[in-house]
Design goal:
single chain, alpha/beta, Rossmann fold, five-stranded parallel beta sheet, 10 helices, 9 strands, 45% helix
């Protein structure tokens, strides 16, 4: 069960097991199958170290992005590539923000600033980045994020755990993956045609952050000071403990996927 896992990681995982409910553990663990399917579609890019950064779509893409980053870091290390960085940007529709600053929508300005900051971190040879989200319906919520990354000089691919077309809306015509790719002007990699178990309000608490209207950045549901100081409200402390445990489980999902990829024929690393 713990083959190849460091002692510190074993201890964190064991501690996390006692914090999450069975349903919560299954929800995070259910990422494994669709993420494996999605990563197989970009296996050549992953093995060649093509993606310099993983961009998690806050809020719902946070746990899948953590798992994907763990896989990339493990495979990159095995093949001698530099580890990708992990950053988070909040998706959402541009037309939901009405405040204007210097002739531009404030949300658009903030998103571009964040994207340019990631580009600066990566340097002149920034190259490709992998955007990770939980589910795509029409692609509209990803338009501003993808556009901003492109404007900053990055080359984004979009990995979604699930793809819904627009089947949840009985009054809307279904939309295909090809139509979403055309709308966004980027590649769409999909793990499943089903909703991931983490989708929706029931498991939203495990992400640990919430998106403020008009912001490109999500904020903690439990303030940083509550993590390091005594908390009078046990419910708030328990909420943060669950968030931390969910992230440990997401790392475990990524760790298991890494082992699977490195054991497959053709994955041998040569020095």
């Amino acid at each position: 069960m713990y083959e190849g896992m460091s002692q510190a990681r074993k201890e964190r995982f064991e501690a996390a097991k006692g914090i999450l409910s069975l349903e919560e553990k299954r929800a995070v663990g259910s990422l494994a199958i669709p993420l494996r399917s999605a990563l197989k579609q970009i296996e050549s890019e992953v093995r060649s170290g093509a993606y310099r950064a993983v961009i998690g779509d806050d809020v719902s893409g946070r746990l899948p992005a953590i798992a994907v980053t763990e896989v990339l870091r493990g495979i990159y290390k095995a093949h001698g590539h530099d580890a990708p960085i992990l950053r988070f940007l909040a998706g959402g529709r541009r037309d939901r923000m009405t405040e204007w600053v210097d002739g531009q929508i404030a949300r658009e300005t903030e998103m571009l600033d964040r994207a340019e900051g990631i580009k600066e971190e990566l340097g002149e040879e920034a190259g490709r980045v992998l955007v990770v989200t939980e589910a795509v319906r029409t692609g509209d919520n990803m338009k501003l994020l993808i556009k901003s990354l492109k404007q900053a000089g990055l080359e984004p691919d979009l990995l979604s755990v699930g793809f819904l077309g627009d089947y949840l809306d009985a009054h809307a015509a279904p939309i295909s993956r090809e139509e979403v790719e055309k709308k966004l002007g980027t590649r769409l990699i999909v793990g499943s045609d089903q909703l991931p178990s983490l989708w929706g309000q029931k498991m939203r608490h495990l992400h640990g952050v919430e998106k403020q209207p008009g912001s490109a950045t999500a904020v903690r549901k439990v303030p940083e000071r509550d993590i390091h100081q005594e908390v009078d409200d046990p419910e708030r402390l328990n909420a943060q403990m669950k968030v931390n445990a969910a992230r440990v489980f997401a790392i475990r999902v990524g760790d298991d996927l890494t082992k699977d990829f490195l054991k497959e024929p053709g994955s041998e690393v040569t020095n």
